[in-house]
Design brief:
Distance between the termini: 88 Å
Structural class: mainly alpha
Helix content: over 70%
Order of helices and strands: HHHHHHHHHHHHHHHHHHHHHH
Shape: flat
Radius of gyration: 27 Å
Length: 487
């Protein structure tokens, strides 16, 4: 009986994974036969490590003249990440052509006519397009490390090597998973290549963030980033499986831009058609209910990430007590002068504060449009991290941090932060709606509709709250601060 059960299990595994392996072998053969794809990858894997090694050697010779050897040694691991990033990013071409490239070459119809399920077809394509980018990344990093060992006699520690390989692997997997979704939802290779910016831009910013943590040898944070990328990759794979449909892929031939229809969709989403009462009792609550996943994620990342980054800055960059000079803050005019001299605002007035906050949120929405909402989150996380960083260090001058926070941030922050979270959550929805099929309310039409929802939320909720917060910040908060300082 046990042998029969094991046999049936093996047969089921072969039945499930056999077709997937067939797809993998077919894709790899097709890719390796195309010299236009293989040659650039080979050049990047073989030539770029030599360029990076030459730059590292010249940099080492230069900084040794000034006794700054530690700086260039901390930058060597970053160069290793860059060397691994370039081949995998170029290999996006393979992933972007996974489905739509075959459609343009007229080879997709026979493939879809096979008895493969949508899940087997999608997983097979995903595995095949992942293998080459990951291998190219490993080969590039290996060649770079080998050259460094002979030229500079430098080699990474086991911890550094492991976290670097984990980051390179996770980044390649995320880029490929996102590119496969894009390939299955577009109608031409040109459109897929344009949408690739939604993948490349956030990964490039993430690479710069990793550079800062490598500079300070903060491997714990790098492991957390790798874990985040793994979770993101799982979510992208699940999303890709959910939205992939072979009939929809074959049925769409061209994406048409209908400006009149787009304007009508935007107007219907942005304008309150049933009056102010219905706007605040039905329309806005309905929009907020639909936003609950984005609101939850934005709140967790903003608060949790701001606390983590702020405390990380306190540990790495402690400020001297002389920085906190409060003797010059004797009246409202001195507080306004301090704010304007900092360059944050032209004048310390409610309108200037409101304009600055609205401009920041709109910039976050624009950046989120090109980064699946990730950059909008980071833009909101930054001020929270700065507040945590400053408040955590005021104890050096004898102030209670919580008391300082309650008179300088909380009065206007309890109004300003919820408004900013709401706008950022909607900006995230604009960025990630592009990965939803158009038949399910996504695509370009979905982005236009969500942009209209952003305008509705900004006009009805966010800007009024920000105006109230700006008035509190310029009229009440300074008074509380002066009383706190004993003036």
């Amino acid at each position: 009986m046990e042998n029969m059960s094991a046999g049936r299990l093996g047969w089921r595994l072969r039945e499930s994974f056999g077709p997937i392996l067939v797809i993998v072998r077919r894709e790899l053969k097709d890719t390796l036969r195309d010299w236009r794809i293989v040659l650039p990858i080979v050049i990047l894997v073989t030539a770029f490590p030599f360029i990076a090694n030459l730059a590292a050697s010249r940099g080492m010779e230069f900084v040794n003249q000034y006794g700054a050897k530690l700086i260039i040694e901390r930058l060597l691991p970053f160069m290793m990440l860059v060397v691994g990033f370039f081949p995998s990013s170029f290999s996006l071409v393979i992933a972007l052509e996974t489905f739509i490239g075959e459609k343009e070459r007229r080879s997709l119809e026979p493939l879809l006519a096979t008895p493969l399920t949508d899940l087997q077809l999608y997983i097979g394509k995903l595995i095949a397009t992942t293998i080459l980018p990951v291998l190219a990344s490993y080969l590039g990093m290996g060649a770079y490390l080998l050259l460094l060992k002979f030229s500079l006699h430098w080699q990474p520690t086991p911890d550094l090597l492991l976290v670097s390989m984990a980051l390179s692997t996770a980044e390649a997997l995320v880029m490929v998973a996102g590119a496969v979704i894009v390939s299955s939802q577009t109608t031409s290779v040109r459109a897929a290549n344009l949408l690739a910016s939604f993948i490349i831009i956030p990964m490039a910013f993430l690479l710069q963030a990793e550079a800062s943590f490598l500079l300070f040898a903060d491997y714990t944070t790098l492991w957390l980033i790798a874990l985040f990328l793994v979770v993101l990759n799982i979510l992208l794979i699940r999303l890709g499986i959910r939205v992939f449909n072979r009939e929809r892929l074959l049925g769409r031939d061209i994406d048409q831009l209908n400006l009149r229809y787009a304007a009508r969709v935007f107007w219907e989403a942005a304008w309150p058609h049933h009056g102010l009462k219905a706007l605040y009792t039905r329309e806005v609550p309905a929009l907020i209910r639909k936003l609950w996943p984005e609101l939850l994620l934005t709140t967790l990342v903003t608060i949790g990430g701001g606390l983590y980054v702020g405390m990380w800055g306190v540990a790495r960059f402690p400020l001297p007590a002389e920085v906190f000079n409060t003797t010059t803050l004797s009246d409202l005019e001195s507080i306004g002068a301090m704010v304007t001299e900092s360059g944050l605002l032209t004048t310390f007035s409610p309108w200037a504060v409101l304009l600055n906050n609205v401009r920041s949120l709109l910039l976050g929405a624009l950046l989120g449009f090109f980064s699946l909402g990730i950059l909008a989150l980071l833009l909101l996380l930054a001020p929270v991290a700065i507040v945590v960083y400053i408040v955590a260090q005021v104890g050096k001058i004898g102030f209670e941090p919580w008391a300082f926070l309650s008179v300088t941030v909380l009065p206007h922050g309890i109004v300003e932060l919820p408004a900013a979270i709401l706008a950022t959550a909607q900006a995230m929805r604009i960025g990630d709606i592009v990965l939803t099929p158009q038949d399910d309310g996504g695509g370009a039409v979905g982005m236009i509709r969500e942009l209209g929802h952003l305008l509705k939320l900004m006009g009805s909720v966010v800007i009024p709250l920000l105006l109230l917060a700006a008035w509190i910040e310029t009229h009440i908060t300074p008074q509380l601060l002066l009383k706190f300082l004993g003036h």
